[in-house]
Design brief:
Layout (H helix, E strand, L loop, with lengths): L1 H22 L3 E5 L1 H8 L15 H6 L4 E7 L7 H18 L4 E3 L3 H9 L3 E8 L10 H8 L1 E5 L12 H4 L12 H13 L2 E3 L5 H10 L5 E2 L16 H10 L2 E2 L12 H14 L29
Length: about 300
């Protein structure tokens, strides 16, 4: 009887959680589906089960209401601004073909209208300040296209801000933190209404951004350093600072940002399978995946 009661309690709690989930406006701040679709030559309005982690149908089935799509390339990409335009064009085309399902919303009024009509609200988050190619006026173009946040750095550093990767790299010779131009970029973002995203930035850049911005920031995909001590996560004083700023931290389910021993465990797992004659495709091979637990196009070993 005791076990039956526990099972019934679990079922009731799960049903309650599902009820809350589907009654709430569910916002996801980071999805790499656009890059995945371009590389795999597929489209979000297709059934991508077994191909991609996301598509329009499964967005709706999962209760997603509001998706910020990551616009991303790494620091080696030629013409990153043109690539950003291409990724946004990809989503615009999907929205044009499916006006009854998804809307690239560029105003609060458009957001409210789409939610009322049970359509998915879509906007963009540019993941890496290198994609403006040091042209501040491109922020205006981004905003007009529907960009509502920009991550100041990806793992690489633009000329005006240092990433978490470069700040811990002893061979990095660039400036640490924000330059005068970097602070100018934040002021322009504040004026336009593009949220400053501090995921991926180094600590020096983080504190400069907090001191410079006049608007709330976000961490679009970061966790707690005290739980998983990797530099992609936020230390306690940073978390407190984001709270005082009025900002919001959005969690990241990538295994290595939840468990700092994951890489070691994963390597052991792969070695054991290799010895047993199984072939497992390396997580560091050139591949693409829209789930943040399996991120990006990996041309080389992806470091935290």
């Amino acid at each position: 009887m005791k076990y039956l009661a526990s099972i019934l309690l679990f079922i009731a709690a799960n049903a309650h959680a599902q009820d809350i989930h589907f009654k709430s406006v569910l916002v996801d701040t980071h999805n790499d589906a656009l890059t995945a679709c371009i590389v795999k030559k597929v489209s979000l309005d297709q059934n991508l089960t077994g191909i991609n982690h996301s598509d329009l149908k499964r967005f709706k089935e999962g209760g997603l209401d509001y998706q910020l799509f990551s616009v991303w390339c790494d620091g080696t990409k030629e013409n990153p601004y043109a690539w950003a335009m291409r990724e946004m064009d990809t989503l615009d085309a999907v929205a044009a073909r499916n006006p009854d399902k998804i809307v690239v919303a560029k105003s609060w009024m458009a957001i409210q209208k789409a939610l009322k009509e049970k359509k998915i609200v879509a906007q963009f988050g540019v993941e890496g300040g290198h994609m403006i190619e040091d042209h501040i006026d491109r922020l205006d173009t981004f905003y007009k296209r529907g960009v509502r946040y920009m991550t100041l750095t990806w793992n690489n550093s633009p000329s005006w801000a240092s990433s978490h990767m470069d700040e811990k790299n002893p061979n990095y010779t660039g400036p640490k933190g924000l330059t005068a131009f970097g602070k100018e970029i934040i002021h322009r973002m504040n004026k336009l209404g593009i949220i400053v995203d501090i995921s991926h930035v180094g600590e020096a850049t983080f504190w400069d951004a907090i001191k410079t911005t006049t608007k709330p920031v976000i961490a679009s995909h970061s966790n707690a350093y005290s739980i998983c001590p990797v530099t992609r996560n936020l230390k306690d004083d940073q978390i407190v600072a984001v709270g005082k700023n009025g900002g919001v931290i959005h969690l990241n389910f990538y295994s290595a940002f939840v468990d700092s021993t994951f890489e070691k465990k994963d390597n052991v797992f792969r070695m054991n399978h290799k010895r047993n004659g199984f072939l497992i495709k390396s997580r560091h091979s050139k591949r693409i995946c829209s789930n943040h637990a399996c991120r990006k196009i990996c041309y080389r070993k992806r470091s935290q």
